Amino acid sequence: MKETSIAATVCVTLLLGDRDSEFPWLLDQCSRAYPLEAGGGPIVPTKAAELDLTFVGDVIFGRYRDNNVFDPIIEDGFPVFDEIKPTLQADVVVGNLETPVVEVLPTKSPIGAQYRFGAGRDDVKVLTAAGFTVMSLANNHYFDLREAGQTESPRILSEEGIFPIGASRTEEPLYRVETLEVEGWKLGFIAVTNRVNAPVRENTPQVPYIELNDMPDQLLPLVEKARADHDLLIVAVHWGDEYVESPSIYHQKVARALIDGGVDMVIGHHPHVLQGIERHGEGLIAYSLGNFLFEHTGSPPRLTGVLRTTWKSGDAGARPCMSATVFHTAYNKRTPVPHPVPATGALGKQVRERLVGLSKKLGSSWVQIDGSEDLRLEGEFCGVEAAAAGEVAAKAE
C-alpha cells in the first residue's frame, strides 16, 4: 500500500463506513486532497514551541453527613467553576479528585469513616466543561465508595475526556509513568499517595501507595527510564499533614531528591491548606495547593489559587526549560454554594502574603505582577533572569 498522510488516513476512515468496495477510490481521492509533504513521509503533528500547564488542589463534590445522607456541593445546577474558568485555561489543566466517582451514588455510604466523599458522572461533566484534562485519583479517599468507586472512577473520567492518573489497579506495577501527549509534547505523570483509608486486601484493586522515604528509591528508576522520551515528568503526590503551614524537612528532602533525579515538577496535595512553592534547580515543587472545590470556606483553608507554569521546548533534543511561573490568587467563596473564585482586594492580599511568606522559608521569592492580583516567581528562566520591570514586590507581614 502506498504511503499516505495522517490526514488522508483520517479522511478514508471517516468516509469509508461499510463501503469496502470503494476503498481504492476513496484512498486516491483523500490522498489527492491531503498529500504527503514535499519532502516525503507522513504529515505529523508539529510540536508547540511552548506548553502552558495549570495545577489546582483538592476537588470534591459532596459528602455523606452523620445521618448517612449525601450532601452535594452543587445545588440547582450552580456553575461552580464559571468564575474561575478563565484563570484555569491552559494546554493541560491538572487537579486532585479527592473523591471516587460512580454511575449511581448509593443512598447511604458503604463505609463507616467520618469523612466520606462521592461523585457521579454529571460531576465529571462539570470538570470537563471547566477545562480539566488530568485528574489524580491517588489519595486517601479512593475507598470511600469501595471497589465500585475504584473501578468506575478512571473509566468515567476517560469517557468524559479527562486523563485519569494514579487509579487503583489489580495488575502490577502499581507505580508507573502514565503518558499523555498534548500539542506534540509527551508528558509523563507518576501519581502516588502516602495516605490510604483502607487496608491492603488480596485480589482487590490497590491504590499506588508508597511510604514517603521510599519515594526516591522506588520512583527515580522510573524517571530515569522515561526521561529520554518524555518532554516533562511530573510527580503528583498525596502527602503531608493536614492544616500545617509548611512541609516537614523530610518532605522537602524527598521532593528535592526527585527534582535532582530528573523530575520537572512535584505537585502535592492533602494538607487542605496552601503551602509554599519552591524553585529547586530547574524544577518546581508545590508542596500543597490546598483546597480548590471544597466545603471548607473559613481561613486559611479557603485561601487557594491556580499555579501556572509555561515551558519552552528544548533545542536539538535538550530538555524543555521553564520560561515562566505565575500564581493566580483565588479563594473558596461560601455562597450560594462553596466554589472557587479569583481573590481580589483584601482576600487577594491574604493569599499573596501567605504564599510569599511560606515560599520565602523555602528559599524562593515571588513578586506581585503590577496591576494584577497575581504573583510571578522570581529567578532565572530558560537562561534569562525574569524581568522585574512593571512588577512590585509582595511583602509578607
Distinct helical segment count: 8
Distance N to C terminus: 70 Å
The tally of structural domains comes to 2
Estimated share of beta-strand residues: 25-35%
Unreliable parts: 392-397
Structural class per helix/strand content?
alpha/beta
Please compute the radius of gyration using only Cα atoms.
22 Å
**CATH fold description of the largest domain:** Purple Acid Phosphatase, chain A, domain 2
Please, what is the average pLDDT?
Answer: 87
Mind describing the biggest β-sheet? 11 strands, mixed
Helix amount: 10-25%
Q: What is the number of strand segments? A: 23
Overall geometry: globular
What's the CATH class of the largest domain, please?
Alpha Beta
CATH arch. level architecture of the largest domain: 4-Layer Sandwich
